[in-house]
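User: I'm putting together a small comparison set for a docking exercise, and I want a reference complex before I start. The sequence is below, and the ligand is EPU. Could you produce the 3D structure with the ligand included, as structure tokens?
Assistant: Of course. I'll restate your input first, then give the structure tokens for the complex.
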Amino acid sequence: MDKFVVEGGARLRGEVRCATAKNAVLPLMAATLLTEEPCRLLDVPRLSDVEMMRRILRVLGVESEFDAEGALCTRLVDDAPREAPWELVRKMRASISVLGPLLGKRRTARVSFPGGCVFGHRPIDLHMKGLRAIGAEVEVRGGFVEATAPSLPGGEVFLGGPFGSSVGATQNVLMAAVLAEGTTVIDGAACEPEVTDLCRFLRAMGAEIGGMGSPRLVVRGVARLSGAEHRPIPDRIEAGTFVAAAVLTDGEVTIRNCRPDHLRAALDKAVEMGGEVRRVGEDAVFVRRQRPLAPADIDTHVYPGFPTDMQAQFMVLQTLAHGVSVTTEKIYPDRFMHISELARLGAHVRKEGPSAIVSGVPKLSGAPVMASDLRASAALVLAGLVAEGTTQVHRVYHIDRGYERIEEKFAALGGRILRAKDDDENAAVEAVAAAQKA
Ligand code: EPU
């Protein structure tokens, strides 16, 4: 198992390029089940979650390979399989996104019911409600969601839930509805850029979708979809992680391949907390610290609100701001696994219900910490970059699920960070110390 050894104190400077968005790519890959023709997804990041989705597609009869330009090319070899097994689904919740396209194309789907995760109960009731509304029979049997639809007339459905709209449910219903016999209206649709990106890909395949980017999607079913080539959107969460890192380390970083229009809430918060943000052309921002870190309250919301996937990273800024900040999770009330690890670095954070009350401290000090999930791991790396001394972040396989070579990107910006084997402790600590002297 790998870990990161991080020596704090370096100011990040330079340019970094974001990868395409994992959370866009995974449903796009699932959407390739909707056609018999090859598809080509450009610039797909090498992530363990992408590898996991490739395995699931293979089980479902779609082979994929990376070409020399880094595009993922998919090809249908068998349209008989209908089942996504527990062994694969339990390793990645996003596997549920094969349910909609399997149902739409093969009219039967059997997908293992995803379990809970470290940030609490994550139901799929809205996915099932939506698929029923467009004409499918959906049951839970033996730990599987079984959906069948000899005919799929389409229908009207409201997909808002207690925590707002659901990205995954919107995507699943959309992917089934594009091949329905009739028209579907999805109200309360998620407006996240990853949903819009999926709409763009489906349209390139021949789907008829209106209202893209709005909470009302209107889908007129078509008889078949063709293959398509598509460039997924840049990863707004990775970009936001670098924004937080630049402000945190008193750095100066130009973040390329990012869509500032997808990042407004995070950029706004970065400025409120002491950063300066300048747009550099269409697809880049320059971020630096302008004044001492100021406290700020953060409420996570559905898009275009502040994303839950950046909550942990921005909490690191709160831990060092002069004053008290409150973070309230409106999407996943229990997504606070990073609090106890940040406390090991000296942060003062108290959890109260769905909120975390953060009293800023003058400094963090390095310690061994344990990554619990993808974004919490990113937060721990950020904390390590600014903490005094050495921080070892264990279980970085979590971060490899969604960030491509993150340690190399931070190192290229001047961060002192190395990947090491868990049993290779001394060598790694010495290597970081040597790099520091150099
Ligand atoms: N929800 C329901 N019922 C449902 C589905 C969702 O009540 O049927 C609730 C969830 O429990 C949650 C809220 O609705 O409280 C939002 O969940 P959503 O369905 O939008 O999340 P998701 O599609 O499962 C995606 C991302 C997550 C990201 C969320 C919210 C992917 C693969 N995952 O998950 O990304 O946090 O949207 O933006 O796209 C991550 O990248 O670290 C990550 C967890």
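The chain has 15 helices and 26 strands. Residues 66 and 72 are 4 Å apart (CA to CA).
User: Thanks, that's exactly what I needed.
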